[in-house]
Amino acid sequence: MGAHGKPERESAEPSLVRPYTLTAGRTASTVRLPLEAPVGVVSPQQPPRWPGSDVRGQILELCAERPSVAEIAAHLSLPLGVARVLVGDLVVQGYVRVHTTLGEVATADERRELIGRTLRGLRAL
């Protein structure tokens, strides 16, 4: 209760407790996930059976555009560690695939695009 007997307003800042409940407290992925690596959808053998608001379904929707792990975290307002764990789980379960980043034959334009996408994702965090 506040000083005038009224309930105090909750903080406008997002709570980090809820995102980490999504990962059961895990902070590391079992899959190597570079921040800049594009993540794409794979056609699974079994369609997911998650509720419509499940964050994993939201990640799958984003992965149609092959975003980076950093972009996924930014779009869903998740801490980067939580996004990494969730994306890693989806990789292990066969729903998404982490694509390689640029190889040695990449052009200067491809490298600039990758750097730009990574910076945009990181700034949005």
From TrEMBL:
It holds the Pfam family DUF742. It comes from the Bacteria. This is DUF742 domain-containing protein. It comes from Mycolicibacterium vanbaalenii (strain DSM 7251 / JCM 13017 / BCRC 16820 / KCTC 9966 / NRRL B-24157 / PYR-1) (Mycobacterium vanbaalenii).
